[in-house]
Write a structure and sequence with these properties.
The chain is built from 18 helices and eleven strands. By secondary structure, it is α/β, with parallel strands linked by helices. The longest helix is centred in the C-terminal third of the chain and has 23 residues.
């Protein structure tokens, strides 16, 4: 567990608080510019119907009450693209400025996959005068996504308009995709003092090599100012290649003991009710496992990796954004799922036949081959978890391949679920129970809600 000094801990704590504000419902953020504490005080907890919003506001109120710097910070520079990037600034009494970026917007999921794909694309960067008018532009082919470029443009614009000087401490922060945007700006701008990435993903190796070439001797200095704060079993910060120095990566307890572990990626997952950070801890077993999976994917060639990263993000675009990306059809997405599953099995178990097995689209045959390869009765933890994780997206997509309910598939899932009961090691048991719950949830969903019209049209 890396030691963390008081200043970094304090600024990281404030970063999580400021990030939390951006996740409030839009109606609570309309026309909000001014003293942050007064804005928070005006929010009536009793009028919030979602429990997660009540939890956020409770923490915001307590954080403002306990810290006058947070209370007296001035909210400004609000920027929001419908279903896309959202950002704002908090200027504290001493002149310190926190530039905050929200996580993935409803229409922005594919951008995540493109950023990790390893393919270059064209981005346009603008220069601004003090009024915010564009006075120049530059088109660059680079390993960066459109949203990353837009985030840097936003930062450059508010920097030009705000008149910040060397007396202003400029701190970038963001949660999830917002944390990735904050890192991108931090490595590309000379105006940043520190960056606090909250649960944000990393970058493609191509992008990191580009940064190294672009900034040469100054690259390491820019990296040193980036800090990573994540919940113990967060499952996003481990995606891609980390831009953060290993000494600057910190994990914290997640106060909600939800066996699904989904809460580990909530914007307030490492904040107690009083608005203070939870206790620092080691990285969790689930997070470690998923990092290994991510590393395997990121080591693939761009032509294969991009198929996986973009296809997987299209599923999130469908589930979280409510619609498919127009240029990607369900067959593309389905193929990407099978490719990911096959490469996971091939890399982890030395099972090269898996790619050929899944290409036929015969799910039951593929599952039986996997179980026969690794053994249902004596699964090692990592193998069991890997099989379980490949099943999750497959169960969501299998109605695309099957014309009717397949009871043999349901029974096979039951056998895998029963196998997870036999793990004795404490850490292994916790991880196994996570996958057991996911498998049983999807098993029930498949059994009771089989309806191809609900998956892909």
């Amino acid at each position: 567990m890396n030691p963390i000094n008081e200043k970094v801990h304090y600024r990281g704590n404030k970063s999580v608080v400021y990030n939390m504000y951006l996740y409030l419902p839009d109606n609570l953020k309309e026309n909000n510019i001014g003293i942050f504490g007064e804005i928070v005080e005006s929010i009536n907890l009793n009028l919030l119907w979602r429990n997660e919003d009540r939890e956020r506001v409770l923490r915001l109120k307590n954080a403002c009450f306990n810290d006058q710097y947070i209370y007296n910070s001035v909210l400004g520079n609000v920027y929001k693209v419908e279903n896309g990037m959202e950002a704002c600034t908090f200027t504290e009494p001493d002149g310190s400025v926190y530039v905050v970026f929200k996580g993935t917007g409803n229409d922005d999921w594919i951008d995540n996959g493109e950023a990790l794909s390893g393919y270059a694309q064209s981005n346009t960067y603008y220069s601004y005068n003090s009024k915010g008018d564009v006075i120049g532009k530059n088109n660059i082919i680079e390993y960066a996504s459109n949203t990353q470029a837009n985030a840097l443009n936003y930062f450059n614009k508010i920097t030009a308009m705000s008149g910040w000087t060397d007396k202003n401490i400029i701190i970038l922060t963001g949660h999830s995709k917002g944390g990735n945007n904050a890192q991108f700006i931090s490595i590309n701008s000379g105006s940043v003092d520190e960056c606090y990435n909250i649960d944000g993903q990393g970058f493609s190796l191509e992008a990191i090599n580009m940064f190294k070439e672009r900034f040469s001797d100054d690259y390491e200095n820019r990296v040193k100012r980036i800090y990573s704060f994540s919940a113990t079993n967060d499952y996003v910060n481990i995606l891609g290649n980390s831009l953060t120095s290993s000494n600057n990566i910190f994990y914290f307890d997640c106060p909600v003991c939800d066996v699904s572990q989904l809460f580990n990626h909530y914007d307030y997952s490492i904040l107690k009710e009083d608005g203070k950070l939870t206790e620092q801890c080691e990285q969790g077993e689930l997070s470690k496992y998923l990092k290994n999976v991510s590393d395997e994917v990121m080591n693939l060639k761009p032509e294969i990796r991009s198929f996986i990263t973009i296809g997987i993000m299209n599923i999130f675009q469908k589930l979280m954004g409510g619609k498919d990306y127009p240029d990607i059809d369900s067959k593309y997405t389905l193929k990407s799922i099978f490719m990911l599953s096959a490469y996971m099995l091939s890399e982890m178990f030395n099972y090269p036949e898996s790619l050929e097995a899944v290409s036929s689209g015969n799910i039951e045959s593929w599952l039986l081959k996997v179980f026969n390869k690794i053994g249902l009765e004596q699964c090692e933890l990592n193998k069991t978890a890997a099989v379980a994780s490949t099943l999750i997206p497959v169960i969501y997509l299998c109605p695309v391949l099957l014309e009717e309910k397949d009871n043999s598939l349901i029974n096979t899932l039951g056998r895998l679920s029963d196998t997870l009961n036999d793990i004795d090691d404490e850490n292994a048991y916790i991880l196994a129970m996570v996958f057991k719950k996911l498998i049983n949830t999807l098993r029930l969903r498949y059994y009771t809600e089989f309806d191809t019209s609900r998956i892909y049209h």
